From TrEMBL:
Protein name (Swiss-Prot/TrEMBL): Electron transporter SenC
Lineage: Bacteria, Pseudomonadati, Pseudomonadota, Gammaproteobacteria, Pseudomonadales
Organism: Marinobacter similis
Pfam families from the UniProt entry: SCO1-SenC
Stretches assigned to the Thioredoxin domain: 41-204
Keyword Glycosyltransferase: no
């Protein structure tokens, strides 16, 4: 039976907005020497670390993807709006890089809907958006621990009579440098050109 996508707009968890507001109040997000488009979160969050399953069903950790600039995004494949829009923008941002720089960036799409998002389904989903996107998921406790690590959360609505349900989640994009250090928090309203500018700056500073 073909899965029918949920038509209601995705509910966005406000936890990340609360984080941004608190950091602004403490003056921690001021621009430094680099003119970032994203918010500078250097030293304000833990390094990239996880133990999940990729879209091939293999156990992976954050160390398996070290050496590249990585963008971390929480979502789910049945998401009708936020996830496909964000992933398309990230794909356009990276595909617009100079060819020699494109492999220096990786998007990590973490599905917080493990009940529906099997590795096979994840593989088909991320492959649609390009080559440098990795689908990840895990058991719900693992996913909640990872979300908590980056000061956000997610939740599930009650299923409708057909078994479909909406998932609320953050729309933030976390950017880590080659060593896995947290560097930027990207807002979903940034353009692909603005995202690309920040990616180039991170690649060049680590090269």
């Amino acid at each position: 039976m073909r899965t029918r996508f949920w038509r209601q707009r995705t509910k966005i968890i406000p936890a990340t907005l609360t984080l941004i507001a608190s950091l602004l109040l403490t003056g921690c997000l001021g621009n430094d020497a680099e003119d970032w488009n994203g918010k500078n979160i250097s030293g304000l969050m833990p390094e990239l670390e996880f133990d999940l399953i990729n879209s091939q069903g293999e156990s992976v950790s954050g160390d398996d993807y070290s050496g590249r600039v990585r963008m971390l995004f929480f979502g789910f494949t049945s998401c009708p709006d936020v996830c496909p829009t964000a992933l398309q923008k990230l794909s356009q941002a990276t595909s617009g890089l100079d060819p020699e720089l494109q492999d220096e960036v990786l998007t990590l799409f973490v599905s917080v809907d493990p009940k529906r998002d099997t590795p096979e389904r994840l593989a088909k989903y991320v492959d649609f958006f390009g080559d440098n996107i990795i689908g990840l998921t895990g058991k719900e406790p693992q996913l909640r621990e990872l979300a908590k690590r980056y000061r956000t959360t997610f939740g599930y609505d009650e299923p409708d009579p057909d078994g479909n349900y909406a998932v609320s989640h953050s729309s933030a994009i976390y950017v880590f440098d080659r060593e896995g250090n947290p560097r930027l928090l990207m807002r979903p309203d940034l353009s692909r050109e603005e995202i690309r500018h920040d990616l180039v700056a991170l690649i060049q500073e680590d090269s």
